């Protein structure tokens, strides 16, 4: 089931454009002349993406750079194609620029550019028979994620590379954010948190020292400890994506108002497909709360994959299609008090198949309309019919909602608030007594969000 769900989700992310095997870039008429359309075989896939959309150099983009084997492609594949971390062991070397357009919903759309390790930036890089100069690469770039392999011996190669990149990029785009992922902090080498922090401090010092002379002005660096084997890569990448969303402060404000008016402990707005959170309230993000809320999406989608029906679904007694609202009420797992036990409890629930965990589905009669995936997947070389079919069957729509009661007096509340965007909250049971109030406020939140992203009239 998990595989099926993952395949479905993977198909929804967007198409991958590989400079090596795509048709030529056709010059386009972007606002500043930088737009380029894909000649053939491209297309922005994913929910919300239209068919045969152009590859636009005006879209926000995140560049993935770093030394060989540092984990660049693995990060892209795990986050945006739902590749399982273990499968990344079989990835080959990246020898040409590959671009993925991520368009899971209309609110968060960007490109991921995965560079080969040995790119010579001052000369530019070939993509689909066209030379992309540093101006084109960095010009509209929102963030550069530089990946350092923490399991590799501290990396003079990585530092030299970073130095080279920053020297070129500074001239083109002084406002760019540099995100350093201290990656692969997993396994026996990184059992203790203290060791991780020590490694981070070490690398941070080395980076600052290395780049002292590049610019007189301060360069903005953020450092993250990441691994594809846990949630850390999701959390880190979420923070990078936040920098691409101009409406972020307004969304945070809305979430702050929501949690204050409903006495909610923590609220996340998740992109359901990638499981990146695109906004949260002002309370600090505790990784175990994040894991719980993120795992809840898995539970809901797994349940939806089992019980959700698309067109042609069997009919219930009233003649309505059996639809999934995946209301997973009263899911109680073992554990004691506190966040750790919550994590353990839901970890079990999410790890096992949903059918094993006592997930109950709402009365289908109440669940509303049948399930249909919103948006469509554009044709692409790597998206076969089977995967498209699975995406259509992905049961997450306006009706999707779920409630999970934990045995430590906490409730997890999930509600779809826009196309492939879910609000996931943690609420104390005693504060959930006025359920109607929460539902009402969440509906207000949904409407405000809709307003926020409504294109302003010309
Ligand atoms: N332990 C561990 N291994 C990882 C992690 N991320 C990636 N790897 C492994 O690192 C190896 C290299 O990963 P790639 O994604 O191919 O690295 P790359 O930077 O794209 O490599 P090039 O294309 O050669 O530049 C693979 O064997 C991955 O399985 C991680 O978080 N932890």
UniProtKB/TrEMBL annotation:
Family the UniProt entry places it in: Belongs to the GTR/RAG GTP-binding protein family.
One GO cellular component term noted in the UniProt record for this chain: lysosome
GO terms for MF: GTP binding; GTPase activity
Claim: Transmembrane helix is one of the keywords in the record: no
Keywords (A to Z) from UniProt: GTP-binding, Hydrolase, Membrane, Nucleotide-binding
Protein name: Ras-related GTP-binding protein C
Annotated PANTHER family: GH16429P, RAS-RELATED GTP BINDING RAG/GTR YEAST
Source species of the chain: Hondaea fermentalgiana
Pfam family of the protein (one): Gtr1_RagA
